[in-house]
Write a structure and sequence with these properties.
Strand order of the largest sheet: 9-8-10-11-19-18-17-14-15
Helix content: 40-55%
Distance between the termini: 63 Å
Amino acid sequence: MSLDRASSKTMRESGHRASHTRLEMGLLIVLAVGSALVAWKVWAQVRLGGGWDTYSFLANAAHFAGKSIGYDEPVRPPLLSLLTSVVFRVSPLAVWPIQVVDGVMSASGVVALYLLLRRRVEQTAATISSLAVLAFQPVWTWVGVGYSDVAAMSLTVWAIYFTVRATEDDPRWYIAAFPMLVLASLTRVTALLAIFALLLLFAMRGRPFAHARYIALGVLSAVVVYLPAALYYSGRFGDALFPYLANLNLANELASRGAVGFGTEPGGWALMPGILVASLTWLALSGAVGTASRTSEGRRAGTRWRVPLLVAAVGVIAVSQASGGIMARQASIPIGIYLAFRALARREDTGPLEGRPTASAALDAAMIVLMLAYVDFHGHHPVRVWRYLVTVAPTYVFLLAVGWSTIAESVGRTLEAIRPGNERAGREIAWGALVVALSVLLAFEVSETVRQSPDPVVVGAAAASEWIDDRTPSAENPVIYSDLWPITSWYVGRETRAMPRFPDPRAYAHELQKRDAAYYMTLGTDTYAPTFAPLYRSDPVTVLGKVVPNDARNPSIRYLGKAWENYLEVIDDFKVDLYYDGGLEGWVGSVFMDAYSADELRRYNAVAVYRVRWYDRGRAESTISDYVESGGSLIIDASGNLDGAAYPLLDTILFDTVIRRQQVPENATLSPAGAFAERHPELASAAPGRWVDEAGGPWFGASYTPVPGTPPGEVLLRLDGSPAATLQRVGKGRVYWISSNLMWHAFKLGSASERSMVAAVIDEAVSQPPIAAEGDLTRVER
């Protein structure tokens, strides 16, 4: 029976009855062989240990189990850690549970692939091809490591399979399909990109009115599945969609426009083995040929509409890929593929879906969209590692199954023409050749695993952590920095601070000194003498320890927001200590304006606000006002909150000042003004600059206007006559309004004289002592 006519209920049911025994046998083979291979890989991986991300997920699992090590990474999706935490609740913390959970989820993906492939190809093809996913080197490499990539891939395939069942067999499968996609995204956020494949299946084969009840139940069940995560994230971060928004913001910041990077450029698909390149090329070619040949047969769109649809498909994708942002590019992929398949794919001749693409064509289109969505997403990022190719494994296996089925049929027909009665033997020869090729590839990967040694970085970090732990009394809690913070935190059993990446090499020693760090576990060669010296080494990891006390303290600034932590201290030549505790992703602690009480803020010489968030805006403004009116010093630039609707300050009033947006003339000149110039005769009289953004476009930033009746502030700096820095007296305190995104311009494009002017403003802002006793500033964090 042709599976391309699966929309015919009678023929589908008769075909399933005829192949019931063979289907069960294929499924049993996949279960037995797939489980055995995955189990062996997990066993081998337990001996080898985990990788970097493994320890991040383990820290989260310990947190969920109530056995926190003092460190977690909340931006990472929770499902893998949550399942592991079940084991941690009844057993000691260890690495192997997360590897087993990863293995179980990965093994389920092999079964899901088999069931999905049976919707498109015969049993032999489905059996061999579903097992072939383990011969796909990125999948094999990362199974059982304790990463979320393969587990998320598995749940994504289940979501697609359930959607196919819903559109073709029974709409009640929507109740399983939508929650499964949610679970996949809670395993790895980028799995949410599979929604485009699901939407395409629905557009081509769905019946929204006839099946509205079950679609609604599917959406409701997805909401119910996500509800616990929503409540957790809402309570902890003030946003129910925290993991998605955090990763979307990161993707928007890092993604590049223009053509997809294919890994030949610097920073491309690092260390991709040659055998993987060869296998990718083979799978792509055979699958593309087979899919194209099967899709282009039968009834298609009329000649009149075929060319316009194809032109529209190519145009939508080409324009978006050439110049669009991430959202435009992603949306263009399903739209373009839909138009292309409407032009080329076979259509139903009869039934309620008459005129629509066949079930096979719809599935082909969905799998292609799935692959292209991931290629686009990862191909536009500056860092591309071949682990990300796990995401395209389902499509490559699908193409292999469809393409090799075509090849096997061709071989069978050729032998039949030469000698009648040999068609079946020809197909078996073709599939036998594929089994041999895949077996050789898998044997190569197994042998590589056998010869593999534990990651020396993990081994070194574990040994160094044990050395630190042995020398730290349980009652003490020294500040520890590390380039390998997830691994260090796990083995030391307490929080380890991540060493940020700074544009100025002087910032590293400054960071250690201001935080009063006791140890720094590093992969670098700098020793930051004389304050620090190497105390222990386990190649390639070195532990630097403080050997010379440093009691000197600069004026302190508590930073609320995300961005200035990278360069404000550089502008002021490290004469201030900026304290930032917003996490690597910028979604926790001091990123929020209401993360601290006014009493906690009074322990600093000043508070800086730029690109800030808040849990409750009213509470945030009340806290800042309380701090300033009691004598605090606030440095604020609203330029980072002018775009977007999430945390807007544009056209709002703060401290009786209206915040607006303004464009800076391209050749504007910065100059000190009035009494400020008299207080700082060392400053240059003018600092000409070029005010254009990174793309050469206009430079925009915030401007500030007092509401009527409010006394004007003291202008400290002017930019072509407009205030660039203004001092406003509020109660006993001071507000330093920074206009035009001046701090960023001074760091990125400014001259030495421009930097000195901005530094003088900072120095005045921190010139008064803290209102309250400083205490231990290294411990004031959220």
